[in-house]
UniProtKB/TrEMBL annotation:
One of its GO terms (cellular component) is cytosol. It is found in: Cytoplasm. This is D-alanine--D-alanine ligase. Its cofactor is Mg(2+); Mn(2+). GO terms for biological process: cell wall organization; peptidoglycan biosynthetic process; regulation of cell shape. PROSITE patterns: ATP_GRASP, DALA_DALA_LIGASE_1, DALA_DALA_LIGASE_2. Keywords: ATP-binding, Cell shape, Cell wall biogenesis/degradation, Cytoplasm, Ligase, Magnesium, Manganese, Metal-binding, Nucleotide-binding, Peptidoglycan synthesis. Cell wall formation. It catalyses: 2 D-alanine + ATP = D-alanyl-D-alanine + ADP + phosphate + H(+). The active site is at residues 21, 153, 289. Residues 107-311 form the ATP-grasp domain.
C-alpha cells in the first residue's frame, strides 16, 4: 500500500501488559515491531506493565499500535487512556472494546440485533448455588462449554461432558472472573473470519477453518503446537463462506468496531447454521495467528497488514489533541 511512513511520526507498539495473555502479546508485539521497522516506520516497543502510559506523551509518540491482548489492553481501559492523551491508536474505541471483551455483553447486543449465538446461562461468583450449577445442563444440554466471561485465548475454558464435571469447570472459570458463562455446545466446523475497516467500509477477509486435535482448540493448541490445521481456503460448501462473511461483518458493525477484529463462529454439523461465539478486537499477530494467515490468502503480506492497521489508527473523539 502507498503510505508516507514519515507522516506517522514516532510510533509505540504496545505489548506485554498485565493480562493472562502477556506471553502471547509479547510475541505479537515483537512481530509487529519488526514488520513496521522493516517498512521504515520509527517504531518502538512499549510495555505498559513496566512503563507509565503518560510517558507516551512526554516521549513524543504520535500514534500507537495496540498489540496487547485481554484485560488492560483489549477491554477499553488503554483505549480510554489514549483518548485522554490524544494519541491515535489501532483497533476499536473505548465502548466497542469494553463490550467485545465481555462475552455476555457481546451476546446481548447480537441477540438484540437478531444475530445467532449459542444459548447461555450466566453465573455470578459468590452468588450461584450448587443447585443452580447442577441445573445448567438441564437448560443447555450436554456437552456444554464453561468459560470466564472476560478472558481470551481459551484461558479457563472447559468442556463439560457430564453433570459430575460441572462444579469443577465452574470453579476453574470463577477463579479467573466473577462472571462465568455456561454456553450451549455447537458440534460442527469451527471457523474464524477477520474483518478490516470501519462502518460501511468494513470488509471480511477469507474464512479460516480450524481443525484441532480431537477438536480441542485450547490455549496450548492455539499457540504452542503444530498439530492444529488451519484451512484457507476453508473448503466450505459454496455460498457458506460468503454467508459467514456477511454475518461477521454485521456482528462487527453492530458492536461499533473499527480498524480490525476477528470473529469466531461454529457451524452446526446437522443444520449447517452458523453461530457467533465471540469477537477479538485486538487479535494475535504471532507466527501462529489467524488474521495474518487470512490476509496472506487475500494477497496482503504481514508487513503490509501492519502498515495498513497503523494507517487506520484513530480516536473516538476525532483528531488528536494538540
Amino acid at each position: 500500500m502507498d503510505v508516507d511512513v514519515k507522516s506517522f511520526g514516532k510510533v509505540a507498539v504496545l505489548m506485554g501488559g498485565r493480562s493472562a495473555e502477556r506471553e502471547v502479546s509479547l510475541m505479537s508485539g515483537s512481530g509487529v515491531l519488526k514488520a513496521l521497522q522493516s517498512k521504515g516506520v520509527d517504531a518502538h516497543a512499549f510495555d505498559p506493565a513496566e512503563r507509565d502510559l503518560a510517558e507516551l506523551k512526554h516521549k513524543g509518540f504520535k500514534r500507537c499500535f495496540i498489540a496487547l491482548h485481554g484485560r488492560f489492553g483489549e477491554d477499553g481501559t488503554v483505549q480510554g487512556a489514549l483518548e485522554l492523551l490524544g494519541i491515535p491508536y489501532t483497533g476499536s474505541g473505548v465502548m466497542a472494546s469494553s463490550i467485545a471483551i465481555d462475552k455476555v455483553m457481546t451476546k446481548r447486543v447480537w441477540i438484540a440485533e437478531g444475530l445467532p449465538t449459542p444459548r447461555y446461562v450466566l453465573l455470578h461468583r459468590g452468588v450461584f448455588t450448587r443447585e443452580q450449577v447442577r441445573q445448567v445442563p438441564d437448560e443447555l444440554g450436554l456437552p456444554l462449554i464453561v468459560k470466564p466471561a472476560r478472558e481470551g485465548s481459551s484461558i479457563g475454558l472447559g468442556k463439560v461432558q457430564g453433570y459430575s464435571e460441572m462444579a469443577g469447570a465452574v470453579d476453574a472459570a470463577a477463579a479467573l472472573d466473577a462472571d462465568v458463562l455456561c454456553e450451549q455446545f455447537i458440534s460442527g466446523d469451527e471457523v474464524t473470519c477477520p474483518v478490516l475497516g470501519e462502518g460501511e467500509g468494513a470488509r471480511a477477509l477469507p474464512v479460516i477453518r480450524i481443525v484441532a486435535p480431537e477438536g480441542n482448540y485450547d490455549y496450548q493448541n492455539k499457540y504452542f503446537t503444530d498439530d492444529t490445521k488451519y484451512l484457507v481456503p476453508c473448503g466450505l460448501p459454496a455460498g457458506e463462506e460468503q454467508a459467514i462473511q456477511e454475518m461477521v461483518v454485521k456482528a462487527y458493525r453492530v458492536l461499533g468496531c473499527r480498524g480490525w477484529g476477528r470473529v469466531d463462529v461454529m457451524i452446526d454439523a446437522a443444520t449447517r447454521k452458523p453461530y457467533l461465539l465471540e469477537i477479538n478486537t485486538s487479535p494475535g499477530m504471532t507466527g501462529h495467528s489467524l488474521v495474518p494467515m487470512s490476509a496472506r490468502a487475500a494477497g496482503i503480506s504481514y508487513e503490509d497488514l501492519c502498515l495498513q492497521l497503523l494507517a487506520s489508527a484513530s480516536l473516538d473523539q476525532g483528531d488528536a489533541a494538540a
